[in-house]
Amino acid sequence: MNTPLAPVLRLGADRVMTIALRRGPAEGPEADASARQLESYGNPLFMFGKVLNTLVLDHVENDLAHLRMLNDVVRRVRRAAGDEVWARVNEAVIAERGHPLRVIDEYTLRPSEEVGTVAGQAIHGEDGGERAPTAIRLLRRAFDLGDDPFESDLLSYVLFDRSFTSRLLSLGYEDAKRNAGDLAQFFSDD
Q1: For 125, which of 10, 28, 86, 131 could close a Cys bridge (C-beta 3.0–4.6 Å)?
Q2: Are 18 and 60 in contact (CB under 8 A)?
Q3: Where are the domains of the chain?
Q4: 3-class secondary-structure state, position 15
């Protein structure tokens, strides 16, 4: 979907939790390392994975940025206009759209590792995980991917092997535990 959050908001959601598939923008030394990593990849699989990310994941990030901007506008207009003017604005909006303008609480849970990196580790049997299955090892040889772990966004879209999915489940569980306080706050009625 071009705007994946739109249907949820049209159905009247007051809160939106997004489980992102990207860590988010890198900063400082991590950004420098990412730039060097990009320079070292010239293979078509790497580039095709990045194109898929642009086509699929960027829409979610854009929707979240749009939601945050609209939340900020609603807060500022409501504060500046006062309750009476705000009520009149919402009457007009309800007549046109069927529901009022409102602030939508949102929370984004981001992975602590890039999913493409986890896929690259899985295909190489890194981190003490299971050895990659024969079909994956043949794929690695066919595309001359070498023996070093690498980032593979493309594989993260098509690799549904246990060596990869078990790593993703562990990563999600650990990230949820690390963010348990924020998650509890988001789901509370306060």
Answers
A1: 131
A2: yes
A3: 6-187
A4: strand
